[in-house]
Write a structure and sequence with these properties.
heterodimer; A: 234 residues; alpha/beta; six-stranded mixed β-sheet; four-stranded antiparallel β-sheet; 34% helix; globular; B: 287 residues; mainly alpha; ABC transporter involved in vitamin B12 uptake, BtuC; 11 helices; 73% helix
């Protein structure tokens, strides 16, 4: 077992008075895809928002290469090489497709991902590079959102519900691109509603239930019964 | 011919109003901040220029070399030190803080410079003019108008063709996601305010050359600035120039009818446009 790049240890997260996460612990090793599953409101998105700095926490609750990052701002976390593909894509409507990609790369981190590489991965975006990002279909917007995150050449990419609201054929297309993305030495944490999809692309899986980790294991060995118990708490 | 003359002078005056308005338009567009102190910051720039001209013996136009970067720096520091602490979902706290700032600036100017009206002496250029047909165009108003066009064009170019403009637009769209792109919101807001006050410095110096000013002169300039922004349509810089021109022409035509109607005519045209086109004449097209 290699040293984890991301270590979350006893993370409590709050929205005002409401506590969304209770003592969540999770590790991510370099080069692996970790899936996080769970019912709506289980705290999956809160977990990703905490990692990427949109929700600030105690410094030592989240460590990146053994450096406490829990209290850093989102832009500082981004400079460390953690990128988020947010739920609902959230492209910048005032920016063209290409500008959305360029702004992802403006942090100045170098690596394999360039505008050209993103266009090779998703050729349709090159044809539409000068269009308003809002004029694209949902699937194409998702490609821009993924490309925007890759443009920062992250060491870890967090993907929140990338299949949400997309046609099955588009979902398949995007997931087929995933091995090519992770093959570049990238590590990923994916949050996914579709459990079989989540298990098939990941090496390890965590299940959240009401803000707590209810199950963790290797994606190819966890049983369906364990998952449904962890998912629904029955 | 008198009426043509009034229209032409109004157009040139509109250039000054567009400069009043451009800074307001910029910060509202980037961070939804309504800056009540904007007029007082214009007057503050005029006083800074007065100090620079008397201390260094420079002409007011040369003083711009110091006042413009100086106000830019003040804007950045003001945003980072004070205004950023008030920014959030609610538009009201920053608005109230800038209202307080307005009172502070006025009183500080009163203490520092007394209530006596001042003006900036630019020398012969103030009374120079060129004849076009039977109309005499003042050289200063022409310089002011040309500056307004250049400033608006430069801001427009900056917004759509530079990394800074991209950062401004992205932050305006969605602050959280812009932050995820490695953009520090506090810094981006600081730059926007710095740029806004650099433009304000131009407006203040031109105001001081055109007319006399005193510490309480800011509020009328704030109103003219707001009117130009709203006539043109929020978030549209060329619209802001058009709004300034419409306001300027309305005022000079009003003054032509009766000198007492100058300010009133501008306000009436503003109200009529607001009633007919609540989003302004050239609103930004967005979803």
């Amino acid at each position: 077992m290699r040293d984890p790049i991301l270590t979350i240890d006893g993370l409590d997260a709050h929205y005002g008075d409401f506590q969304a996460l209770y003592g969540v612990s999770l590790t991510v090793e370099p080069g692996e895809v970790v899936a996080v599953i769970g019912a709506n409101g289980a705290g999956k998105t809160t977990l990703l928002r905490s990692i990427c700095g949109l929700l600030r926490n105690t410094p030592s609750a989240i460590r990146w290469h053994d450096k406490p990052i829990g209290a850093l701002r989102a832009d500082q976390i981004a400079q460390h090489g953690i990128a988020l593909v947010p739920e609902g894509r959230l492209l910048f409507p005032s920016l063209s497709v290409e500008e959305n990609l360029i702004i992802g790369g403006q942090s100045g981190r170098t690596g394999p991902w360039t505008l050209e590489r993103v266009y090779t991965l998703f050729p349709v975006l090159k044809e539409r590079r000068n269009q308003a990002s809002t004029s694209l279909s949902g699937g194409q917007q998702q490609m821009v959102a993924i490309g925007r995150a890759l443009m920062s050449n992250p060491d870890l990419v967090l993907m929140d519900e990338i299949s949400l609201g997309l046609a099955p054929v588009i979902i398949r297309q995007i997931y087929e691109a995933l091995p090519g993305i992770v093959g570049e030495g990238l590590t990923a944490v994916i949050v996914e509603q579709d459990i079989s999809k989540a298990l098939s692309v990941s090496s390890r899986v965590y299940c959240l239930q009401e803000g707590r980790v209810s199950l963790q294991g290797h994606s190819n060995t966890v049983s369906r019964e364990d998952i449904s118990r962890a998912y629904f708490g029955v | 011919m008198d009426w043509v003359n009034a229209v032409v002078q109004g157009v040139l005056l509109g250039g000054l109003y567009a400069l009043f308005a451009a800074g307001l338009s910029l910060i509202f567009g980037v961070m939804r901040l309504v800056n009540i102190a904007h007029g007082d910051l214009i007057v503050l720039s005029a006083y800074l220029a007065l100090t620079v001209t008397t201390a260094l013996g420079l002409s007011p136009l040369m003083a711009l070399m110091i006042v413009v970067p100086g106000m830019g720096l003040i804007g950045y520091l003001l945003q980072r030190a004070i205004l950023n602490r008030t920014m959030g979902e609610d538009l009201l706290p920053p608005l109230l803080v800038t209202f307080g700032l307005s009172v502070i600036i006025q009183n500080a100017l009163l203490m520092g410079y007394t209530a006596d009206p001042q003006n900036l002496q630019a020398g012969d250029i103030e009374i120079a003019s060129v004849e076009v047909g039977s109309i005499a165009l003042g050289v200063m108003p022409l310089i002011v108008f040309a500056t307004a066009v250049v400033v608006i064009a430069a801001l427009q170019w900056m917004f759509y063709h530079t990394a800074l403009g991209r950062a401004f637009r992205a932050t305006s769209d969605n602050q959280d996601i812009a932050q995820l792109m490695g953009l520090n919101r506090a810094h981006v807001f600081g730059l926007a305010m710095g740029l806004s006050l650099a433009v304000t410095a131009l407006a203040g110096v031109f105001l001081g050359i055109r007319t006399s000013f005193d510490p309480a002169a800011g509020s009328a300039r704030l109103i003219f600035g707001f009117e130009a922004v709203i006539i043109g349509g929020l978030g549209n810089l060329w619209g802001t120039l058009a709004g300034g021109v419409i306001l300027g022409v309305a005022q000079t035509l009003g003054a032509k009818i009766n000198p007492g109607y100058q300010i009133l005519a501008g306000h009436i045209v503003f109200l009529v446009i607001l009633a007919i086109r609540p989003r302004g004449l050239f609103p930004r097209i967005d979803g």
